[in-house]
Fold this protein.
Amino acid sequence: MPATASAPVAVTGAEGFIGSHLVEALVAAGHRVRAMVQYNSFSSYGWLETLPGEVMNDVEVVLGDVRDPGSVHGLVTGTEAVYHLAALIAIPYSYRAPHSYVETNVTGTLNVLEAVRHLGIPRLVHTSTSETYGTAQTVPISEDHPINTQSPYAASKAGGDRLADSYHASFDVPVVTLRPFNTFGPRQSMRAVIPTVIGQVAAGERTITLGDLRPTRDFSYVKDTVAAFLAVGTAPAADVVGRTFNSGTGEEISVGDLVSLIGKIMDTELEVRADQERIRPAASEVMRLVCDAGRLRAATGWAPAHTLEQGLAQTVAFFRDPLNLGRYKAGIYNV
């Protein structure tokens, strides 16, 4: 079935942190969404289950798996655009189960590219990560920065990126790659540093358990990252297709200073205790990431609309809601 102006858009990884926010934004922009949720025996829709009914009225949930070509083919048939966000993301777990990362992040991406290619879908937005750059060799980091994968997770994502580039060059697949720097906000996994800190404080802890406090990151509020997805997903093809775009604020903060800022926002004195289990292998730790998003601004006009403090305040409000906090295990470190 050929795509039409009224065709839905497809989102893989729709049940996750960024994916669920993207689904909301797409519906708000007037789209119908076909949302792939990884098949599970509980029939759980992940974070999509928390979205308002008026949003979900325009969402068709499809239980499937990007590792399965048939699932992907069925998902994208008849769509006008595909936003590919499905991925295994936790860096520490990639040390334990690297094969799983290749299956999902490389083979899964291959399945999406093949489906888009053979069905003639007009636009594919592929999701990369700033982790593919490794520790900054020059700052800010532009898209021309060398790729230096320091973890199995980063390597698997870079593999998916290279496949996306090759499918555009070889088969003219209309793919654009978005490479977000560290995104945070409501619904994020506690495997990430910001929800780890906020979640522990919201649960009553005053001694926060973390890994290395020295690395710096460029943190973007989730609504700004979603706006970047929409920007590259709807911009004229001549401006974006076949290209890679960073999204980020251009500002960096160390993990230690971030903890102090969160404590100030939550009006709480915090003590930090180092946990060796949370510290990456020395050569695998990415010490500095700061984004140059000039290419994205020039091509689409995108710019972040939230400061770090504004985003943190919204995230704190989310975790202070007992209903939201109750969905997490704040006292357990899950790799």
User: Anything to note?
Assistant: The mean pLDDT is 94. The two ends are 42 Å apart (CA to CA). The chain has two domains: 9-184+220-247, 193-217+251-289+306-325.
